[in-house]
Amino acid sequence: MTSARRVQHSYREYLELLELSSVKLEYCDGEIYAMAGGTPTHADLGASATRLLGNALLGRCRVSSSDLKVRVEATDLTTFPDVTVVCGPRQTAAIDANAVVNPTLLVEVTSPSTEGYDRGEKLSHYKQLASLQAVLIVSHQRRQVTLIERSAKGWVQRELRSGEVIVVESLALSMSVDELYADVEL
Q1: Mean per-residue pLDDT for 96-116?
Q2: How confident is the model at residue 1 (pLDDT cuts 50, 70, 90)?
Q3: What is the C-alpha separation between 49 and 145, in angstroms, rounded?
Q4: pTM to 2 decimals?
Q5: What sign does the CA torsion over 105, 110, 114, 120 have?
Q6: pLDDT at residue 41 above 50?
Q7: Which ranges constitute the DSSP H helices of the chain?
Q8: Helix (H, G, I), strand (E, B) or coil at 176
Q9: DSSP 89
Q10: Helix residue spans in 22-150 (DSSP H)
């Protein structure tokens, strides 16, 4: 019986592959994964979240698209969230000057192939970021946003649906679920 051997890559190899790749690549503990390609719905929801957050946080925080890498040094994950918000100066990884290590808010738009990972293992990685105050998981199936927010008692999760308002207290931010999904075909 033969066993499969995991191929371990250095972070430098990851950066070299990323530079040549036509798709976004995620790095975790020596392994490299191609990230799922987006759909029009996914792209529309990411753009809507970027616009709404950018308008709401203008002058207070920097809102970036999925082109910005985030590095979770505690778990050796580097990934491209759909939207990244950094309040205050950006801090970058010692190993990668193009990856921020201090996001305040992250947004992930789900897809059929990534929803379980976004809500499970990836969220676990994100919670290791000391600067992180909240994560928004935006459903690709229904008008529903999961808000996971840091509190004095730990992480609190709430489901918000059509007609409700997403409130991120630590950022004095409020955003309508209906506005997020406006003109988006599910």
Answers
A1: 94
A2: very low
A3: 11
A4: 0.93
A5: positive
A6: yes
A7: 11-20, 40-56, 115-119, 121-126, 177-181
A8: strand
A9: S
A10: 40-56, 115-119, 121-126
